[in-house]
Amino acid sequence: MNVLLVFAHPEPRSLNGSLRDAALDELRRQGHAVRVSDLYAMGWKAAVDRSDFPSLPAGGRLGVAAASGQAFAAGALTDDVGSEQEALLWADAVILQFPLWWYSMPAILKGWVDRVYAHGFAYGVGEHSDRHWGDRFGEGRLAGKRAMLVVTAGGWDSHYGPRGINGPIEDLLFPIQHGILFYPGFSVLPPFVAYRVDRLDAAGFDRLETDLRARMRDLATTPPIPYRRQNGGDYAVPSLTLRPGLGAPGAAGFALHRDAPGDGRPAQETSAP
Hints:
Blueprint: E1 2-7, H1 15-29, E2 33-38, H2 39-42, H3 64-73, H4 79-90, E3 93-99, H5 107-116, E4 146-152, H6 169-182, E5 187-188, E6 192-194, H7 202-217, H8 230-234, E7 235-236, E8 241-242
Parallel strand pairs: 1-2, 1-3, 3-4, 4-5, 4-6
Antiparallel strand pairs: 7-8
Helix pairs in contact: 1-7
InterPro entries: Flavodoxin_fold, Flavoprotein-like_sf, NAD(P)H_dehydrogenase_qn
EC number: 1.6.5.2
GO molecular function, one term: NAD(P)H dehydrogenase (quinone) activity
């Protein structure tokens, strides 16, 4: 497979850097072609502003979605954005690696999403009607590709458990996994999350590296999270609300958007590329 790893940590000698190196080494050992977008090393510009749209008339009002769509259609996006879009199209699998900062991704990675996910590329794709509300949430330009998160956290795993003070890790990562990855079509694999990393000793790192290498070996075969496809029949259009009778007993919130046996219909299947 072709694998793109997008790395967002400012210190290459960090634990994150060591995990990145282990992941890349294992991917190459398995015969995968690998590219790395090291956002801090690249000096990635995170903020969307007028400079992203050189063809925008001077003095014109900046509407980001409209300007983004026009620039994408005209092939007029900036070179750095175009290069990352090309990498996404090249990749069969994409890994986003980052430390969990303030319950989310670092700003530089969010800025990568904001700028690279142009209108017409990652959103605003497909027919929009009262029958089909765009190609998204399981469909779209990046459908058929796999994606996963590699995340480090300072807290204990219990802090991110079902009753943990920080909230369940599945809920904290839902906006990224469902909203950033599944939205444009990726099949999203369960995340690799390392906890209590600030107090990790050598033996702990060895165990962590072993587990990460195993995930890299299984990158092509790990079953994805069974998110419900928007246009798979589970949601009423155009309200995009889950149809009555669906949802496992007791399920609420984000969990409703994961298909599961026993909620009234068989789980949807998402195959590997």
